[in-house]
Design brief:
single chain; mainly alpha; 2 strands; binds zinc ion
């Protein structure tokens, strides 16, 4: 069986999933928190940094979760102040041009 390096704590383990068993529980707790946060309504312009600050999920883990298929419809910018370089045009609706 192939050993993988845990995406969360760096420990080597043998499993199908991305993290070791210990971290899987923590991941699940974080993901529940993230889902709750997203379901509770959030402003469109919110950045990963802001979500990280309000949920307590580290930016690194947050990036990992947002790469998962279940969050594929969710787009969160890295930093709300650097969206397309138009830092002074942020409005209340957080309109994103597509
Ligand atoms: Zn781990």
């Amino acid at each position: 069986m192939e050993l993988k390096k845990c995406a969360r704590c760096g420990k080597f383990y043998a499993s199908e999933v991305e993290v070791c068993h210990e971290c899987e529980r923590k991941d699940n707790a974080d993901i529940m928190k993230l889902k709750g946060f997203l379901a509770g309504g959030y402003s469109k312009g919110i950045s990963k940094m802001e979500i990280s600050a309000s949920t307590g999920i580290s930016a690194r883990n947050l990036n990992r979760y947002l790469g998962y298929e279940e969050f594929s419809g969710v787009y969160i910018p890295e930093n709300s102040e650097m969206v397309n370089g138009t830092s002074n045009s942020k409005n209340d609706e957080g309109t994103i041009n597509v």
